[in-house]
């Protein structure tokens, strides 16, 4: 899929690795200048070097999405460098820190940190970026939620709560910003293969673990997503062609959330 993102300037949080890296590559390949804001500067710089080698214009900025004192200067730097900001992808996220445990065993510090990055981070970065999008007289915001924000999962209460928050925050932002030409949508990925999730899916023998097989049995497509399959949906939502889509939540989950069970 090719779209025209010439003259667009994008900020992708958590763009160093995983889904954010795939999004950054695709936006750059379609003509956008891409700033990756990530807590892991070394990896962000490696990713940016790869984007530049492929002919893209890119910038790595170190920052934690939960810290407004870091996000405001990050946005200023992008505008200084390229004159504007027109696309924001709130992708950075974390999941289980202290293992998968029920709510009465969930450590308070883990709960707080997951909410701080996955939900408050979307607010913090948006608050820093929206003034630049308003000065641009329009733009696009895509928030990365999760299927876990639509249907609850056990043993990940903080992630589930944060990602459900992102869904309604997206709709609320769409209501507030639509009249300014800023369209706000969410993508809810299903299980997606990244370096981190590969370990959950595949055992040492290279075949799906029992857990993964049981999860995949509930997904009509019977496989996890590739990172680029999530990135394509983001590319569509920021494309000129998605000009009437605002406040939508696009599930990219192989049918996971289409229904509870397929047989009766
Ligand atoms: N992989 C999946 O199966 C899956 C499924 C549903 C939703 N998601 C969501 O997609 C997004 C990307 O996930 P991923 O699997 O690619 O993760 P990942 O761990 O592979 O990459 C996350 C990136 O975010 C960065 N990051 C983490 N905390 C940060 C912070 N506080 N500030 C700035 N950067 C930070 C990391 O350094 C990393 O580069 C997340 O929001 C995640 O919740 C992932």
| Major sheet: arrangement of strands | 3-2-1-4-5-6-9
Tell me the β content: 15-25%
User: CATH top level?
Assistant: Alpha Beta
Poorly predicted runs: none
Sheet with the most strands? Answer: 7 strands, parallel
In terms of quaternary structure, what is this?
Answer: single chain
Global Rg: 18 Å
Query: What general form does the structure show?
Result: globular
What is shown here, in short?
This protein has 264 residues and is an alpha/beta fold. It has helices at residues 18-29, 41-53, 68-82, 108-135, 157-177, 195-201, 210-216, 227-238; strands at 9-13, 33-38, 58-62, 87-90, 139-144, 182-189, 192-193, 225-226, 249-252.
Protein described:
With 264 residues, the chain is an alpha/beta fold. It has one domain (9-192, 228-251): 3-Layer(aba) Sandwich (Rossmann fold). It has 8 helices and 9 strands. Strands 3-2-1-4-5-6-9 form a 7-stranded parallel β-sheet, with helices on both faces. It has a two-stranded parallel ribbon with strand order 7-8. Strand 4, helix 4 and strand 5 (139-144) form a beta-alpha-beta unit. Helix 1 (18-29) packs across helix 8, helix 3 runs parallel beside helix 4 (108-135) and helix 4 (108-135) runs parallel beside helix 5 (157-177). The longest helix is centred in the middle third of the chain and has 28 residues, at 108-135. It is globular. 43% of the residues are buried. The model has no long low-confidence stretch (mean pLDDT 96). Bound molecules: nicotinamide-adenine-dinucleotide.
